[in-house]
Amino acid sequence: MGIKNYFSPVSALKFLVKKPVTVRVPYEKKEPSENYRGFHINDIEKCIGCGNCARICPPNAIEMVPMTEYPKYKDMKVEEGKRIKKIPKIDYGRCCFCALCVDVCPSFSLKLSRERIQVETDKEAFVFIANNDVSYKDNLGYVANEKSHLLGLKPKR
Amino acid sequence: MKTYELFIGPQHVGITGNFSVILELEGNVVKKATPNPGFLHRGFEKLMEMRGFIHNVPIVCRICVPDPDPNEANYAMAVEKLLGIEPPPRAKYIRTIVLEFSRIASHLFTFGGHAGSIGLYTIPNWTISDRDFILDLFEMLTGGRVYHIFIYPGGVRRDLPDGFIEKAKDVLNYLEKRLDDYNKLYFDSYMFKKRARGIGIINKEDAIEWGVTGPNLRASGVKADTRKDDPYAAYGELDFEIPVLTGGDAYDRIMIRRMEVVESIKIIRQALDNIPDGPIREKVPNPMRFIVPPGDAYVKVESSKGEYGYYMVSNGKDKPYRVYIRGASMTHGIHILEKLLPGNYLADVSQIMFSLDVCPPEIDR
Ligand code: SF4
Ligand code: SF4
Asked: What is the value of pTM for the model shown?
């Protein structure tokens, strides 16, 4: 505990002239990583409506709803005696972004994006059917691959 | 002199998380302390009985917020023991890397908290920004920053992405350099020594008798570490030391964590260099019908707070029959704190708490 220790904190003053590590959001952007776990993207055409995603979801954030609930397929003709395919509707108030649903999706249609801003004035805005008409549909984040898939399936090329 | 009661509650700046202590003071000297952890009761143990084995994977990491990975690893290891499987070697190395990064991140948090509580406010800013580099690595590997939900029964969920090893090494080099800066401002500083030496001493006998574990135990002169005594993941194959100090005071409890950061950097470097190739997950049951054979298992790991233990009972269904979690902070946050605080100044209360590295969510599970 000498005189050296007494003055050693002064050396920290040099950081006053160094470049800060902070990112100045929103003027600067911080890119999320390659497999970031953000909002879902679902290719509804490819989805087979198996409900695996709803069954694995730990906080029960997924509800399976008939495909006709989605505006694009509202007027879809359903043949007599056939069941309408059900697709996942996700409640982001519950979702913990664990991506387990992505890793059990047998058709590899469900993916996570890198979109993550969850601010809206309408409380219903973040309960919606996962789709691929969203603005962030090409901003792919966590996508299941051969090694991560929990059912041991391989993505089709 | 008359005593009065003071409630330093969950919003107080010197408190680790949602935790409170009811103090009885005489002047500014503590006469009696009653910790009250009930603000963060989330009922993990009961919740886990009602959910499938895989549904519990995203729950367990929430038991300790700053250091979530030991819980994930411990849960996965308990399930693996019941299933009678071993993760593949590559998964063990990835687990080790994740666990040690988590330890460094958690220790950085503790340094920040402790330094803040003795008035060195620059240190929390530094440690939290440095911890963010580790979180960036976690984000790259797992997709999540704080809760990684990454260690899965039977192995891990994803392989190391391209460029991870190089980036991890850069972060380690950076952290090692930063330790010098920390030394100057914090660990060697006159103020830290003056404030923390001789405060809140736990002697060796008490530490053993009260069941203190982890860095707090090693700061009291007992060489015990689950990573060495009962190796799990890849620790058995790596070369590292267990630092031990003998003072048992707040100063030694912080210094031992600083020494552990150095060891952790060493461990991660070895793991990154020697990581074997191969699969990342053993064959496990279908996640939607994850049936575990009946039986019970107790598995322990060393977290940055101390020793964790999971006792899991399965009755052959797809849900655990009972999961009991032994967290380190029950001892440190309740019994030891109650014993250490009386006789100290009010100004040292938060310092003692931070030096014990209490993690309130795991006290009341
Ligand atoms: S990410 Fe997890 S919590 Fe969210 S919908 Fe998928 S399974 Fe459910
Ligand atoms: S798991 Fe995939 S295919 Fe099955 S319902 Fe969900 S999104 Fe559709």
From this structure: 0.93
